[in-house]
């Protein structure tokens, strides 16, 4: 059994690589009129999210108000913005926490959504910021989803 150990190690290495690959999932959110369905989704770190039926819509993690621009994403994560009408897919979302996004043309009608990657570790900071209007309703939806 001279070659036994290296072979087993190689087999285990290949197996873990394989399982990491097959376990990463893509989750689809559909745009319709002025809402995203589902509005809040829970995924695992490393998964991706894509949007379909995006004609007339876009997704953007940057929220601009008179006080400036804010990204409601976990610290160290990267925000994203799609082109108008694009059935966009994110890069693997590896940083745990809550990502908020919205459709700019329809944000006035409350067209926003949230992605919870792993645990909602940064949710309290969004609550503490005392959001208003559509943002407040979106944060409330995330709180409800995490309470389930
Ligand atoms: Cu829209």
From TrEMBL:
GO MF term list: copper ion binding; electron transfer activity
Stored PROSITE patterns: COPPER_BLUE
Entries under Pfam families matching the protein: Copper-bind
Provenance organism: Methylophaga nitratireducenticrescens
UniProt keyword list: Copper, Electron transport, Metal-binding, Transport
The protein, known as: Pseudoazurin
Highest taxon of source: Bacteria
